[in-house]
Amino acid sequence: MNPAVVVHAPARRQARALQFAVLVLAAHGREGTSRRLVFGFIEDHPGLHQREIARLLRLTPSNVEYHLRQLVRAGLVQAENDAGFVRYYATVQSPDGVSRPVGPVSREERKCLSLLRQARPLEIVAHLLLEETLTLGELANRMGIAPATLTYQVKKLESVGLVERYRDGNERRVRLRAREEVVRLLLDHEPPQDLVAGFEDLWDELEL
Q1: Domain segments of the chain: what residues?
Q2: What is the CATH number of domain 3-104?
Q3: Do domains 3-104 and 119-206 have the same CATH topology?
């Protein structure tokens, strides 16, 4: 282990905690309330983009944009471009005990969460958590979408290692690659309720 890391890591954590207190916790009035709300929401639901954050928190887009800019500038939140959408992730854990005690999201987790914050990929994962494996035709029928649309969504999930397609005789099937890891991600970073609005019954069956 690098001795420099051992020496400086506590100092960095202390500096970030101070940044957090000054920028977020010590902010006053409506501005402070909104900023704490935005940060806590990103901490609980990493991987959302600005428009979703504004809609789900019922804040104006300009208000959310302002607070995100301040949080990013202070290093408390990181912005990542994902196919034209800028998604946000907390880089520190709030010290106030309000948010759930889940640490910052790793780079690999961000790739997965960027898809698990989209309705179609999340619905595919939900079906596979219940059934373990399905043919592409079965999955398309259950979701009520065209096979070409399903294939496109499955390829996106394959690209980050969440699912894999394989041949079973004459059938093309799909399954999760790391079931325990997917469950952990969904438990640690629960999707907003609005995201599962099209498949609530399926989601409730998971009992996560």
Answers
A1: 3-104, 119-206
A2: 1.10.10.10
A3: yes
Residue carrying the six token digits 């019954």:
201
Which backbone phi and psi does 78 adopt, to 5 degrees? -115, 135
**pLDDT for 46-65, tens place per residue?**
999 999 999 999 999 999 99
Cα 69 to the center of its chain, rounded Å: 19
Amino acid at 72: V
pLDDT at 76: 82
pTM confidence score: 0.74
| pLDDT tens sequence across 129-182 | 999 899 999 999 999 999 999 999 999 999 999 999 999 988 999 999 989 999
Query: H/E element holding 88?
Result: strand 85-90
Which amino acid makes up residue 162?
Answer: L
DSSP 197: T
- Short-list 7, 30, 10, 8, CA closest to 18: 10
Residue 164, SS3 per DSSP: strand
Cα separation of 208 and 193, whole Å? 13
CATH of domain 119-206: 1.10.10.10
- Asked whether the beta carbons of 38 and 27 are under 8 A apart, the reply is no
- Return the residue matching tokens 């029928």: 141
Q: Which of 94, 99, 114 is nearest to 48 (CA)?
A: 114
Query: CB of 117 within 8 A of CB of 83?
Result: no
